[in-house]
Amino acid sequence: MAAVDVIVDNLVTLWRIPAVRQNFHWIFLLISVVGSILKELELVPETYFSSNRNALNVYFVKVSWGWTLLLLTPFLLLSNSTVSRSAASLGRRLLSLAVATIIWYACTEAFFYVEDVTGSCFETDGADVVIREFTSKVGCRRAGYQWQGYDISGHSFILAYSSLFIIEETAPMTFLKTAGLSALPRMVLNLLYVALNLIVIVWVWMFACTSVYFHDPSHKLLGTVCGLLGWYLTYRVWYLKPWSPGLPPRCHLKD
């Protein structure tokens, strides 16, 4: 497992750089704007990732919140039990998972609602005849028709929000790597940390693919802004208050 330890050390070194951690969120706005311009100018050639049937989209992005929770939950349980044996401390981190899940659910449902209330059902893309018997996207598509509404990019939202959420909650790893853990917990924690960083890489890559291949510019920008706001209002505003789940621990272990 020496190779994993080296990878963890390099990742920790990267995320310890203040400029990297403090400016990571800007990368999503930059990619969204630049990607939208490239798409509108048709400067990016078709690739494997220009199809929404690509494996990363089907098996990862479409269930991205599930992957985030699957890897982050055991990481939080193990890392916080190492930092503190306090049930209250662990409970606050699990509460942050619940808050993030509520934000994810509320935003995605809001996006579906907006698309429903702003859309109409057509026989085909670009058709002029509206099929008025269908008033929702689900019913329209089940009947084999096409729904056209204001489609806020759920991909842009969840990939940006999930990446920022993971980076915030894995912050304790910057000191846990020197905590002198026993072999098995250390190995599990290291593997989870590497997996979470790999997931962030996948999310950023697929965010870029969404930006250059799919959606209208305003759909992507609004989805991105929603993701950034979800992160900012929690980790930069609410979690700084005493009546909140609080931020993940960022100091050295207590004796």
TrEMBL record:
Record field: transmembrane: 24-44, 64-83, 95-114, 191-214, 221-239
One of the Pfam families matching this protein, by short name: FIT
Entry's Gene Ontology molecular function annotations: coenzyme A diphosphatase activity
Keywords, in A-Z order: Endoplasmic reticulum, Hydrolase, Lipid metabolism, Membrane, Transmembrane, Transmembrane helix
Location(s) in or outside the cell: Endoplasmic reticulum membrane
CC terms in the record's Gene Ontology section: endoplasmic reticulum membrane
Topological category with respect to the lipid bilayer: Multi-pass membrane protein
Keyword Transcription: no
InterPro entries registered for this protein in UniProt: FIT, FITM1/2
Domain of life according to the entry: Eukaryota
GO biological process, one term: lipid droplet organization
UniProt-recorded name of the protein: Fat storage inducing transmembrane protein 2
